[in-house]
Write a structure and sequence with these properties.
The complex is a heterodimer of chains A (205) and B (464). By secondary structure, chain A is an all-alpha fold. Helices cover 82% and strands 0% of the residues of chain A. In chain A, helix 3 (38-69) runs antiparallel to helix 7 (141-175) and helix 4 (72-93) packs antiparallel against helix 6. Chain B is mainly β and 464 residues long. The chains are: A mainly alpha (205), B mainly beta (464). At the A-B interface, helix 2 and helix 8 of A face loops of B. Chain B: Belongs to the selenium-binding protein family. Chain B: This is Putative selenium-binding protein.
Chain lengths: 205, 464
Amino acid sequence: MMDFWPWLSLAGLGAFHGANPAMGWLFAVALGLHRQSARTVWLSLLPIAVGHAASIATVLAVMVAFGAVMDLRSLQLVAAAFILAFTGYLAIYGHRHRVRVGMRAGMAGLAAWSFLMATSHGAGLMLVPSVLSLCLADRVGMAGSLSVSLAAVAVHTGAMLTVIAAIALVVFSWVGLAGLRSAWINFDRLWTLGLGATGIILLVW
Amino acid sequence: MTTWRPDPSFYPSPRMAAKAPKETLAYVAAFDPERQRPDAIAVVDVDPASSSYSQIVGQVDMPNVGDELHHFGWNACSSCLCPNAPHPHVERRYLVVPGLRSSRLHIIDTKPDPRNPQIVRVIEPAEIAERANYSRLHTTHCGPEGIYVNALADRDGKAPGGIFLLDHDSFDVLGQWEMDRGPQKLAYDFWWHLGHDTLITSEWGTPDTFENGLVPEVLLGSQYGRRLHFWDLHTRKHLQEIDFGEEHQLVFELRPAHDPTKAYGFVGCVISLKDLSASIWTWYREGNQWAVKKVIEIPAEPADPDLLPPVLKGFNAVAPLVTDIDLSMDDRFLYVSCWGTGDMIQYDVSDPLAPKETGRVRIGGIVSRSTHPKASNGALNGGPQMVEISRDGKRVYFTNSLYGAIDPQFYPEGIDGWMVKLDVGDNGGISFDDAFFVDWPKGHRPHQVRLEGGDCSSDSYCYP
C-alpha cells in the first residue's frame, strides 16, 4: 500500500505553483486580455504546464540517475545539499532572471518561459523528498523509480494545471486584475522558506 | 528588502492607475546653472488642503557641484506586475537621479520621510564607465529587467550613447543594455511598448555639440538628432530606423500610448529648419514595420527682431520650440510645451493620427513674457518646459528651464525659475490654478517634476 502523504504533498506543491501568479496563470490571462480572447487563455495554459513539467521531470531524471549509482542515504544527502545551496542562492540573489520572453510570446516561447521560471525557482528540487519516500516505500528499483517519478510529474502537473486553469478562468471572466494589488502575496519568500525547510528535513530524516 | 504585498502604488493597468489617490507631494530636479552650489531635489507641497500648498517643503542637496540634474525616475513602478517578469514585492521608494553633466548617479530614499528624502548611494561616473562604457546620464525608467538609464555618450564623451541597466534593489550597474545597436549612434530619450516587446529611442547629439549650447552650424547642417530607433526589448537588438529628414532637428520626447495593446505613440520635434515651426509626430504599426506621420505643426510667430535673442533675430519670428510633451493616462490628451512662445497646448488625441486642439494657456515666452496671477513679477521669462500629469489626468504641473547652456541662448537675461499647475476640465480645457505658483528660489532652476506614487511618464503597464 503506497503512502498517501507523498502524493498529497506532490499535488499540494502543484496547487501552490498553480496559485502563484508568477508561474503562469497571470501570463495566460494577460495574453487573453491583449488578444481579447478566452481561447488564448486556455491555449496558453498548455505550454505553461508542459514547460513546468519538463523542468521538474529533468530534475527527477537526474535524481533517478544518481539513485542508480548511489545508496539511498548518500542520495538524500546530495539532494539536501543541492536544495540548501539553491535556497541560499535564492535568499541572497532573489528570484531575478533575465527576461527573454515578452508579451508577443508564441506557444513555444511560453513553454520555454515556464521551463525557465520553474527551473529558476527550483520547482523540481522540492519534489525530491516525496519521490524519494515513494521509491523507498516500495523498494522499486531503477525501473520502478522511473515510473514513480513519471507519476509524480503527472500528479504535480495535473494539480498545477487544474489550479492555474481555475484561477485564470475566474480572473479572466469575472473578477479582473484589481485583486492582484492586495492578493499577490510574496510567494517567492514563502517558496524560499519552504525549500529551506525541505532541505533540512531531508538532511535529518 | 521585499514586502509581503505589492507596493500600493503599482497598478495592473492604466485604467486602474487613473483611479489612484491624488498626489500630495511633487519632487522637482533643480540645478545651479553657474555650477557653484550643489543641485538639489526639491519637495513641493501639491496638496490644496495643506497650509504649505505650493511651497517647497523639503530639499535634498547633492554631495557635489555641477551635476546638472535633469531627468530622474523611480526604482520600481507598475511594470513590476508584468506576468513575464514579475517583481511585485519591490518597493517604489527610491528616486534614481542622474547628473547629465557629471554622469554621477544618486539614489535617494523617499520612504522614511517623504518630505525629507535622503541620499543613500552615489554611483560615481568611473563605475558607470567601467561597467557600462557610458557617460552623460539622461532618462531613467523602471522596467522588466530592473532600472534602465540612458546616456548620451560613451565614457569618452563620444558616440554612441545608449542604455545601461541597474539592479532595482542593490543599484549595482549591471552593464550595457544593447546587444546589437545597428546604425544607432546618438541618444536622447527612450521608452517602450511592453505589449509589443518594442523599445524606442530618439536622438540629440554628442556632448561637444550641446554642453556649451546648441551649435548653429550643427543645427543648420542637420546634424542633431532626427531619427527614431526601434528595438526588440528582449533580444536587445536594433530592428528599424526612421529618419525624419534634413528639415527636422531635435526629435526628442517619446510618449507611447499607456494602453499596452495599442501600438502608437507621439514624439515632439523641436524645430524645422524650413520655417522654425515645431511638430508632433505619431508613430504606428504599418504592416510589419513602424511608420511615422506628422500630425501637428505649430508655426513660428512673427516678432519684432528687437525683442528676439541673437539666435533668432535674423528670422523675425519666435520659434515655438516644443521641448516636452506628455500623454494623459487614458491616452486621450497630449500636452505640448512650447518653450519659445510660452504656450502649453492640450490636444485631444483620441484619434492619434488626427489630434484636435482643446486647450491653451500662455506663460513666459521669449516675446510675450506672460505672467501668472500669483506671480509678483509682471513679466515672466522661460516658458513651459518639463510637463507632468497626475495619474487621474486632472492636474498638470510644469517648470520653465530647459538646459543650463541653452537657456541663455533663447533667454539671454537668464531664467528666473517657476513652477505652475493647471486644472483640467472634464472634457478637456486647461486653466491656471491661481493659487499655485512656485517662485523658485534664486540660484537654482527647476526642471523635471515627478509626482509621489507615480505620474503619466514614470510607469508602464502590461494589462489593458
